Amino acid sequence: MDWDHLRIFLAVARAGQMLAAARQLGLDHATVGRRLAALEDGLATRLIERRTTGSVLTPAGERLLVHAERVETEMLQAQSALGNVDLALAGTVRVGAPDGFGSYFLAPRLGALAEAHGGLTIQLAPLPRSFSLPKREVDIAVTLQRPSEGRLIARKLTDYSLGVYASRDYLARTGPVDSVAALRDRLLVTYVSDLVYSPALDYFEAFREVEARRLECASVVGQMEAVRAGAGVGILHDYAARGHDELVRLLPELSFRRAYWLVTHADIHDLRRIREVETFIVEAVRAARGLFVSADAGGT
Hints:
This protein is α/β, with parallel strands linked by helices. Helix content is 39%, strand content 25%.
């Protein structure tokens, strides 16, 4: 059985679409389809059912997926064990992160690592969602909670704090906010509750009893830009808000503390390119430690 065909099968199974798998692999759609057909012909069974909405594994495909992932694990472990195979700091490393941390902290810094190593391609996915390491959606994930299942290696990156903010223009227009009661009839910039992917993102419990209008944004970046533009009052990451002089931190008694975790899969943890990107992120966070927790931060 051709490993290259299996690799393409894995990509299609994980992406759920042949076109998306082709993009991830750097191949054209026709090549992916041709190699997948060759694998099916060689096994004399259909593995993928093509639908207008995507690609779905057949029962035979589900059975093959288990074996293909086992082969992939063995290949990765062999690559790690044979140190000379992975001496060059080259290849692709995909990093998944919450959109706030990914956009406001990692994005301005990862370019230095990529520029220092011409053979290394870093893919940053700063999205308001969780990522599956077992399904190889990403190689490294920054998470809001320590994972409790799976063959995952996790280390705590840092605590961080959030506070209540509004823009100077908004306060000049609507008046000061010196208590939670003063938020009555204001516009609160908050998240979309049914799109929250982690309980750690539920910051607005303190405002449940406040009768206020809402502007709901599904991403941290959207909430930040709305508050900066003077739309209303929101809960923002202190380390991101500090870079914007137009923002004022309000209600110091309302502060929230959370944590970031750095997670990789045990199968690829020892690959040099993974270790190097992990080390870079850890050291960047350590160097900026003072940014993450405000002096006004509490423990909510």
